[in-house]
Every structure is written in structure tokens, then in C-alpha cells.
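#lab-general

N.A. 3:47 PM
ok so I finally got the sequence cleaned up, no stray characters, all 132 residues accounted for. can someone with queue access submit it? mine expired

B.Y. 3:52 PM
send it over

N.A. 3:53 PM
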Amino acid sequence: MMTVTKPFANRVDVVLSGPLEAAMMAEALDQIIAASQGVHHGQMLFAIEDFEMPSMGAWAAELVRLPKLLAAVMRFDRCAVLSDVAWLRTTAEVEGAVIPSLEIKSFALAQGDAAEAWLAGEDGEEDENFPV
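B.Y. 4:20 PM
back already:
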């Protein structure tokens, strides 16, 4: 199951838990695309609570929507990924390196506060990179 909410004008939250079939994936991706309308320099919080590999039908639903999904992703500057699955966190950060306009940082599920602070720019990293 995937739920999509828009808690703020420039923020979209996605929670993934359990198996994903084609109809669920299609509906969730359509919700992400719709929620991203009007977002500029947005933030996304993507929490993966209980990961199961999506079905082939779910992958097909994503492929069909890929052009609209990529356009939606370009409206975001930062995406925090919460997961206790290490390879998912690594994969998310690799995706962030491939999409130049989107910075992705991953966190363990228990690090929700740190993810929120990072999304808000309160992590202090910007202060550490000052000219000498």
C-alpha cells in the first residue's frame, strides 16, 4: 500500500508499506503527480515502512507514467527517504546523484526528526561549507 499526502503547499509525503500491485501503484503515482502540481522548490518525504518488491504489474504501471512522474520529480529540490533497508537507502542516494536538480538523503526510520530537519534546511550542513 502506498499513501500520498500533501501536508504543506510545497511538500508531498509518501508512505510505502507492504506489497504493491498494479492498481495500487497506478493510483499512488497518479496521486503523486497530482499533488506535485503547483509545487516549486518542494520537499518530499518518502517513508518505506515495510518493503516488499512490487509486482511486475506495478512496475508496468510506473513505466506507463514515467514521463509525467519525471516532470513531477523536477518540481522538488530535496527528498528525504526513510527506510530500515540499507540497500534501499543506498539506491535512493544513487538516484539523487543521477538527477541533478534533486538532492536525496536517506535516513533510518527512527531518524524521522533528522529527516524533517534536513528537509527544512536545519541540518547545519550549509554552515559547514564556508569559504576560507
